[in-house]
From TrEMBL:
Lineage: Eukaryota, Fungi, Dikarya, Ascomycota, Pezizomycotina
MaoC-like domain: residues covered: 175-284
Gene Ontology molecular functions: (3S)-3-hydroxyacyl-CoA dehydrogenase (NAD+) activity; 17-beta-hydroxysteroid dehydrogenase (NAD+) activity; enoyl-CoA hydratase activity; iron ion binding; trimethyllysine dioxygenase activity
Record protein name field: Trimethyllysine dioxygenase
Every Peroxisomal multifunctional enzyme type 2-like N-terminal domain range: 17-155
Annotated source species: Penicillium patulum
GO cellular component assignments: peroxisome
Coiled coil: none
Length: 760
């Protein structure tokens, strides 16, 4: 049985474009200045970017702004109820290029031929409309491009239509590092520029439609992400030659918000037909959330462009200086291809390749020799750690807050360097994503591990006796399952207080509804448990974005999942937030992840990785302000084990607070980062997002729950505070067992739920 509307052809529509339209499109999707054939109309190879035809169904022949809603509502499909296209978003698109478009349609007539493949009822979520659109020379009938599109009409399902066929999936290869990475940084103007191509959907210009559709405000065009990913693949693997792209497709998995950084990871699959190789890719935002999935491209691969910018001639002495310093950029290590300099290596150093990588420096030092630098010269990172965020004396060309947003477990294992420059006092490294890091020679020497990268001690890789998190914790996976209590009950009744504290212990967090929207009531709520802990940030907080604190929590930037106070010997146990107001802006959604549940999953999937995070101790610090440099009395692991109960009871996970690991061997670096990446992937898969509202406070266990926040705009006022572990646990035990039972069981270390000491 064919789908409703299948085969229905809409009336053909004329389309046209000028050279300025081609130039605008190229600029709007991030074409670079070194791809002048897309950006300059007098270039001898001036070309249309191969995905440009996707904008023509929006633009048609217009050179003026159009009413997007009116144009969409004019469409009617036989056999399908009239649907509101104002609530439509992109689903998936597949482009097939049959012939390159000319740089202008002037002097010729082109038309859009559009037919329905099917309309599918997805129930309550909405309806999918799948169409095929072709750009055709009206006179010759020659087809230039075909696009199979699926549009999703939000909340407009349930009309009795078929669900439709399942789509073919093209996942990236498991366990293989990407062959190329392309990064695009969007901003508040990205959607406003892209819409000038002809897609004037108000969803991408003003917040009201997005709020009604549940997006919280403006989102960037899905086709911006789609086209910029196509550009990245053509640039990285196709030599920026438009003739090298035959097919390109991707599914729109998540909305992109202005300001998101989009990272496209690209894999060559190796299968080639008619000269075109299958390429797969996935695009993620800076939260690690997939925004483009099912990415596939057929491409003539011409090799990647060299991204290493160096001087055409260097002295062996200058090369030696850099290489002597690089092993000292703790904890970075590098393998270097020295093939172009093989005739001269004996003057300076040699590399011994064996099961243990070792640097051997010639005792005679460097000798002045001029040598050309060949294209085969390359750097490949073997081990890596926090970049600028971990280097107190390092500087960066990024703003202060942005310097702390590099999450080391998310750095690809094959991270690469674009360029290295050095002077008498500094080393400047430009990384694959254009991040610039500047290291002083003094800092490098102070953190040097020496030249050797010989293997030293390592953490035992298998310790099955290491137990997981404490028993009887209940993970919450959906916001609507969140435990909640009422402010008036908690403030007036100890039984309700016991319920509240028990929710925190069992589920890891709890909302308190009906809190008066003022800081005084919020402070009284925290003090219902115990006194508020004072830190170098003060006691009770009542704050807005304020960079004077030199802490990302006081900015409006994105904050990844983390625990607080990792730099204290005794991190605060509870943390409470109450949003008092958020005006003149959007964003600021709150992130929670159950670290215990993620740790238990890690232990099941890979006990060796779990053991790494239990046994390998980390240095932490808080030194953002000039008068503060806090470190715990002893280094601590990510997962802390209870010495009496033999169970994991505390997590310290904060990329922003970790310090350089100066005494780690190469093998320890490798094993720890493998474990950290694994744990980070699990954390991302278990993220739960919610939005705080005035009058509803959130309290959570900082030893268990990781928290974060999306970036936001506008004025946002928040209040809250910390509570110490001992005070919280004392209150919980007394409410649960009574004073006599607690005193009678002093010193009882039995791992039983009727033992007050078991509640840790």
């Amino acid at each position: 049985m064919s789908a409703p509307g299948a085969g229905h052809e809409f009336p053909a529509q004329e389309v046209s474009w000028q050279k300025r339209d081609v130039l605008l499109f190229a600029n709007s999707i991030g074409i670079k200045a070194d791809e002048l054939h897309f950006l300059y109309e007098l270039h001898p190879n001036f070309s249309v970017f191969p995905t440009y035809s996707l904008i023509l169904p929006f633009k048609l022949t217009d050179q003026e702004v159009t009413d997007f809603y009116a144009r969409q509502k004019a469409v009617h499909i036989p056999g399908v109820p009239d649907l509101d296209h104002r609530h439509g978003v992109d689903g998936q698109r597949k482009l097939t290029v049959l012939k390159p478009l000319p740089t202008t349609s002037a002097g010729r007539k082109f038309e859009l031929r559009n037919k329905v493949i099917g309309v599918y009822d997805k129930g309550k979520p909405g309806t999918v409309i799948e169409t095929e659109q072709s750009i055709v020379d009206k006179e010759s009938g020659e087809v230039y491009t075909k696009v199979v599109s699926s549009g999703f009409l939000v909340g407009q399902g349930g009309w009795g239509g078929p669900k439709g066929p399942s789509t073919v999936n093209y996942p990236p290869p498991e366990g293989k590092a990407p062959d190329a990475v392309h990064v695009v940084q969007s901003n508040s103007e990205t959607a406003h520029l892209y819409r000038l191509n002809g897609d004037y959907n108000p969803l991408h210009a003003t917040p009201e439609p997005g709020k009604k559709m549940g997006f919280g405000g403006v989102i960037v065009h899905g086709l911006f992400s789609w086209n910029s990913a196509a550009h990245g693949i053509l640039r990285e693997l196709g030599g920026s030659n438009p003739a090298n792209m035959k097919e390109f497709q991707a599914r729109f998995a998540s909305p992109v918000r202005p300001g998101d950084k989009l990272t496209t990871e690209i894999w060559r699959m190796g299968n080639v037909q008619d000269g075109y190789e299958e390429i797969r890719f996935v695009t993620k935002n800076d939260k690690g959330r997939v925004v483009l999935s099912n990415g596939r491209c057929l491409l003539k691969v011409t090799g990647t462009k060299s991204k290493l910018s160096v001087y055409p001639h260097v002295t062996i002495t200058s090369v030696a200086r850099i290489l002597k310093l690089l092993p000292r950029i703790v904890p970075y290590y590098f393998l270097v291809s020295l093939e172009p300099l093989v005739p001269h290596i004996s003057y300076d150093f040699q590399l011994a390749y064996s099961t243990q990588v070792e640097w051997a420096m010639d005792s005679h030092g460097a000798k002045e020799l001029e040598a050309p630098l060949f294209p085969r010269w390359s750097f490949a990172v073997v081990f890596f750690s926090e970049k600028t965020a971990s280097v107190p004396n390092a500087s960066s060309q990024l703003p202060m807050a942005a310097r702390f947003l590099i999450l080391s477990p998310q750095i690809p294992q094959n991270v690469k360097i674009q360029s290295i420059e050095h002077s008498d006092s500094m080393v400047n490294i430009k990384w694959y994503d254009n991040h610039m890091a500047l290291y002083s020679h003094d800092w490098l020497r102070a953190h040097s591990q020496g030249v050797s990268i010989k293997e030293t001690k390592s953490v035992p890789q298998s310790q099955p006796e290491i137990q997981g998190p404490r028993r009887h914790f209940t993970p919450v996976v959906e916001p609507d399952q969140s435990p909640r209590v009422k402010y008036d009950d908690v403030m007036s009744d100890d039984k309700s207080l016991h319920v509240w504290l028990s929710h925190i212990w069992e589920q890891g967090f709890c909302f308190v509804d009906g809190v008066p929207i003022n800081p005084e009531a919020t402070q009284f709520l925290i003090e219902r448990i115990a006194f508020i802990r004072n830190t170098h940030y003060g006691g009770f907080w009542d704050f807005t974005a304020d960079l004077t604190f030199k802490d990302t929590a006081y900015t409006n930037e994105f904050l990844g999942a983390h625990t607080d106070n990792t730099y204290f010997t005794d991190p605060a146990r509870l943390q409470l937030f109450h949003l008092l107001s958020h005006t003149e802006g959007s964003g600021g959604e709150n992130l929670l992840v159950d670290g215990f549940a993620a740790a238990a999953q890690l232990r099941l999937e890979n006990p060796e990785h779990y053991a790494q995070l239990v046994n390998q101790r980390q240095p932490f610090h808080a030194s953002g302000n000039e008068d503060t440099c806090i470190q715990p009395s002893a280094m601590a692991p990510v997962f802390s084990m209870h010495s009496d109960l033999n169970t994991m009871y505390q997590i310290r996970w904060n990329n922003y607070d970790r310090a350089p690991k100066s005494n780690w061997s190469a093998s320890e670096q490798t094993m720890w980062y493998s474990a950290a990446r694994h744990y980070n992937d699990i954390l991302k898969s278990r993220e739960m997002w919610t939005k705080l509202q005035p009058g509803s406070a959130l309290i959570f266990d900082n030893w268990r729950m990781l928290h974060g926040r999306s970036e936001f705009t506008g004025k946002r006022r928040m209040c809250g505070g910390y509570v110490n572990n001992d005070d919280y646990i004392s209150r919980l035990r007394l409410l649960k067992f009574g004073r006599k039972a607690v005193l009678d069981n002093l010193g009882n270390v039995r791992n039983q739920s009727n033992n007050p000491y078991w509640y840790i």
